[in-house]
Amino acid sequence: MTTTGQIPHDAWRSSTYSGSNGGECVQVADHIPGAVPVRDSKNPGGPVLAFRPSAFAAFVQAVGRGEFTDS
Predict the structure, then answer these.
(1) Domain DUF397: where (predicted)?
(2) How far is it, in rounded angstroms, from Cα 22 to Cα 7?
């Protein structure tokens, strides 16, 4: 299990869709071999989910296609 403390502070970046209002935001950590860590920006010391890069890429592509929008 990956913890926030094991990932360098400067590796984290906010989603480009999050805006600057401080609302709902996810962050991902770059350059972590074999994983894409994801955390809630409002709780940076909280839990981290780690995904295989291929799984995260498939998720991002599905979001881009609108597969998770409300109908």
Answers:
(1) 11-63
(2) 22
